[in-house]
């Protein structure tokens, strides 16, 4: 009988558990529910929505090669999905629905409602763990709690992971075009365009060539990374000017590549995920961070609601500083590495990990602005925007999260720049006002330099701002 596969953040044909399992049972029809209004409500902006839209086109073509039609539900929000799926199953005569699990609370609630609704219609539901090596809840501490700290989680992950969990799924076979209960051929639907406005603003996405969508593009990136960069990853991953990382995050976030495919590639090169080449094993460590934050979403649901992981930090007195916030967003803080990073985010939809840490810490410590404002700004621009990692990263920087940076360890943005962008190359590439200055002065332009180039003077003094943050955090622990 006809098998319906609902594709969500797993937009690929290869190594897709739900698709592979469904195809082993009978003819397959795929379905997506773009729910753009819901995505906007979750804070995503045009960059990510456009990447999704382009990804759906590529996916539809790839599926067509197997004669798998891609249906598109006309749903704006998650609330509409259960009924729309039930109607589609009815229309097609499908008695089974397969999907790979997602872990944020709204997604899980949506899936719970889908289960309820389809049970009423006698459609069998098949759910799979696909995004992660372990289903959240499988890896718990000795006390039966979710891990709230990364290192023991990752040790346990390495200890328990085995070849069964990492085995790649078979791609489906080319099938005959499926037919509905009346014997009519089933055809795919049109992919909706990007809405014209998002939150009242024109929805303009970046140049599509910056982030070509789809699994082929993702595989090419993986290949290039492994060939040219992976073995030096541990030395180069912190240097924004060298592009030493994989730049696979947007593809992982929408499942245009699977984490298993990344692990398999490392195993093929290195024979192990934990030992051997330091570059490759450090990269695996980052992939495990991704898994860790998904487990956190399930184990500590409050973070889904943008509440701090560490409850006592709820009482922190964040500053209302709209002018400071706008200067940060626009890359005009007068701290060159911070400004270069923020401009990278806005111009490319992506920011280097080291710089995500530097800019997030600058906002939450130097400006003492609520991390949630920064988290939301990142989300609207990031092509890879994803609740688990974004929230985790922000709470880390704000010292409110799991494994958080201790509040007194505040990055000095100038020395971060000097250390990780030694020759000011990255600054020059993003802050043209400073490009003509000698490398050393790009990190700390003088008052004259600023006057001549139009680059702003620092909006806060590092020492004073640092002290203000220390005092605020100290007052918090006293008031506990
Ligand atoms: P690589 O270094 O090649 O790493 C490989 C993959 O591992 C990444 O693609 C990503 O999927 C995963 N990964 C790497 N670092 C982390 C991490 N610290 N936490 C979780 N997963 C990680 N990552 C996102 O995917 N989406 C986000 O919305 C996001 N927001 C962030 C916000 C802040 C404040 C911080 C500090 C980090 C954030 N990260 C986020 C994590 C990290 O910065 C990006 O995953 C990374 O920069 C992506 O580049 P890459 O693909 O070249 O990574």
TrEMBL record:
GO molecular function: deoxyribodipyrimidine photo-lyase activity
EC number: 4.1.99.3
PROSITE patterns: DNA_PHOTOLYASES_1_1 (PS00394), PHR_CRY_ALPHA_BETA (PS51645)
Sorted UniProt keywords: Chromophore, FAD, Flavoprotein, Lyase
Region annotation (Disordered) ranges: 173-199, 439-459
Enzyme class: lyase
InterPro entries xref list: Crypto/Photolyase_FAD-like_sf, Crypto/Photolyase_N_sf, Cryptochr/Photolyase_FAD-bd, Cryptochrome/DNA_photolyase_1, DNA_photolyase_1_CS_C, DNA_photolyase_N, Rossmann-like_a/b/a_fold
Record domain Photolyase/cryptochrome alpha/beta: where: 1-133
Keyword Heme in record: no
Regions that span the bilayer: none
Listed cofactors: (6R)-5,10-methylene-5,6,7,8-tetrahydrofolate; FAD
Protein family according to the UniProt entry: Belongs to the DNA photolyase class-1 family. Belongs to the DNA photolyase family.
PANTHER family (alphabetical): CRYPTOCHROME, CRYPTOCHROME CIRCADIAN CLOCK 5 ISOFORM X1
Protein name in the entry: Deoxyribodipyrimidine photo-lyase
Organism of this sequence: Cobetia amphilecti
Lineage: Bacteria, Pseudomonadati, Pseudomonadota, Gammaproteobacteria, Oceanospirillales
